[in-house]
């Protein structure tokens, strides 16, 4: 199953204070969406088609202070690696940090790489080094 991301344009549903926030993008296999599970402090990518959602990746974080988070890890099953899933998770988590005006420790090496590769460098000021 090929999951080449056709569009990097993500849309954010306007329920930022709700327990889940969803980002979505299109892939050749249909729609992928990122859900933010605030209670369990994680972002997941699922394919939102049919009745059974399948998890394609997860990014975990934890609060280390009132306005500080640690972006701890991303995991994408081997079958779905190389198709932009981790980038989609990273963008959603970093957009959350920006929108909530948080500071982030970045323990995950992939997220560090993702931040460094962003040409506009909009996330750097929110990262605690």
What does this 3D model show about the protein?
This protein is an alpha+beta fold. The protein has one domain (32-126): Gcn5-related N-acetyltransferase (GNAT) (Aminopeptidase, 3-Layer(aba) Sandwich), CATH 3.40.630. The chain has helices at residues 85-99, 109-116, and strands spanning 11-12, 20-27, 30-37, 42-47, 54-65, 68-75, 103-106. Strands 1-2-3-4-5-6-7 form a 7-stranded mixed sheet. Strand 1 and strand 2 form a beta hairpin. The longest helix is centred in the last third of the chain and has 15 residues, at 85-99. The chain is globular, with a radius of gyration of 14 Å. It starts with 10 loop residues before the first strand and ends in a 13-residue tail after the last helix. Mean pLDDT is 78; it is low at 1-29.
List the helices and strands and how they pair.
Blueprint: E1 11-12, E2 20-27, E3 30-37, E4 42-47, E5 54-65, E6 68-75, H1 85-99, E7 103-106, H2 109-116
Parallel strand pairs: 6-7
Antiparallel strand pairs: 1-2, 2-3, 3-4, 4-5, 5-6
Provide the gyration radius in Å. Answer: 14 Å
CATH architecture label: 3-Layer(aba) Sandwich
CATH top level assignment: Alpha Beta
Domain module count: 1
The CATH superfamily is Gcn5-related N-acetyltransferase (GNAT)
Strand order of the largest sheet: 1-2-3-4-5-6-7
Strand percentage? 35-45%
CATH topology: Aminopeptidase
The averaged pLDDT comes out at 78
Family: Belongs to the NATD1 family.
Protein name: Protein NATD1
Organism: Neolamprologus brichardi
Pfam families: Acetyltransf_CG
